[in-house]
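**Sequence, structure tokens**
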Amino acid sequence: MMIVGSTEQAEAALRAGEIACPDCSARLRPYGHARTRTVRGLGDGRLTARPRRARCQGCDRTHVLLPAALSARRADAVEVIGTALAAKAAGSGYRTIAARLGRPFSTVRRWLRRVPQPHARWLYEQGVQHAFRLDPDILARPKPWPSMLGWGLNLLAGAALAYQARLDSDLPPWTLIGLFTGGHLLSGPLRT
């Protein structure tokens, strides 16, 4: 699975031959679609997407191009999960967050447990890398947070806003954060 900004951007890049296979670096070509997914957004909102599937011209492996607004194997959008993590960083407990988002306590508790200190540190490192690449001044003036998770989300949000301003992007901040983290807002990057 590969994380892309949006289905439309992925489709255009795929047709232009601009997406390389993560396994062998050959070009990917269109190869149908994955199943249509509908996930919950904030409030009563719903997001529906039909991710593109691509096949590598070199190794014949297939890859699903998942929009960054969605999380793999999650019923909620990145925006919802990110909002829960930001509330945790601000000091809210899982019951308060669950009530505010209208989600089951067990779901929110599970999300929050998926961000232990080492993963919060990884999110912070991703924030530093993307902030430095897009606007190094962000690193000179970050808002102080009592936790590593807060620092990381703050830097990722700053990088997302810098990305929007610099590249005139219409992708929402949480979608950009999903893109910056490669779809790993909740769990660390896959180690191979």
User: Anything to note?
Assistant: The CA atoms of residues 69 and 175 lie 5 Å apart. Residues 78-180 form one domain. The chain has two domains: 2-67, 78-180. The radius of gyration is 17 Å.
